[in-house]
Write the structure tokens for this entry.
Amino acid sequence: MNMQRALRSKPLPMKVLGIVAEYNPLHNGHLYHIDRAKREACADAVIAVMSGDFVQRGELAFASKWDRAESAVKNGIDAVFEIPAFACLGNASVYASTAIKLLAAIGVVDVISFGSESGNIDKLTMVAERLSDSRISDRMVELAREGYSYPRSRAAAYSEFFGDDGESVLHGANDTLAIEYIRAITEFNKCTEHELEVHTIKREAAGYSARFDTSRKFQSASGIRQAARQGIDVSEFVPDESAKLISSYFSERADTIDDKLFDLIRYVLLNLNASQIDEAPQGGEGIGTRLIEAVSRCKSFDELVMHAKSKRYTYTRISRLLLQLLLNIKRDEPGVCEPGYLRVLAANETGRKLIKKAKKNSLNDIPIITNINREANELSDSANSQLLLDIRAADTYNILTMNDMYEESDHVKRPILL
């Protein structure tokens, strides 16, 4: 009897769900994902790794990483860690791989959930496994020489060897990221005893780039941003915290920020030659020459991207390249590699307990940092370079968004604890 009471009183292990996010902005579709994934995975807590001030599409985030992290913790996330700038401006593979490595490195995450257009984990896993076939990578190299963009070459190579079986998932933005998440999780699970589970939820929201449509229950983040820029009320489709941030950004600063960004980009391009541009991770294949020829003819960031865009160079690739040049990110610099630390942006009580548990039991594979002034010296040289890039990205973001350079500095800001 005493033994039974003792067993009943012993706390059960906490199951933790991991999510990769941008929350640009956090909207009702995200809340749906958080709630449903938590229920289906039987999770007790949720940890997110989130893009910082620059996001994967090659844009500035509409609100700072601190504001977006706070909004996330107020709406179902227990702790938010930052995805380093080099990965946020990397291609889908770099972004997904880095995000999964961060979630795994915390040491307390058990299952990772992501949205997908297909909602079919078996099909996504099958395609992810098939993409490891060396014939596909070899064929993609040949197609790239013929002028195919990366997404088109991958879809075409896949179809040549596997036909239409699963090929459709190579065209959805979230399916594409889902495949990269699965590939990264598979690689992690090969070398660990604590395997990560994989979970997906079919997107109920509009497509990744769908326009704002009030007849839909959920809206895409890009649709919400476009609508807000046009002065349309989007408050019905986002939580209160996001609505306030959206109102501040799009009613007061968005156009000015766009102009400042374009001016900085032009200045950077005028001080580089084509070969220097091609040293950036998204550079190469003659894109440097194309940008230099286009910059003097264009009057906006969007016009510059559209001028340089071709069937080989996608809009997103060029956007990311321009921001890599702005932040002086080079392909071979030390910080552009493996994630070197876990930086806490925000946490509630549950999140703080998980972070404390990871540190106390040495579960984390890389350092968890909360105060860069005190902890930067403890990082490896590579991790320190990575951190300096993140600080530079935050400073650049603050210049562009007219935030207080001191108060909003990464040297001053501390994790938001709720």
Notes: The radius of gyration is 21 Å.
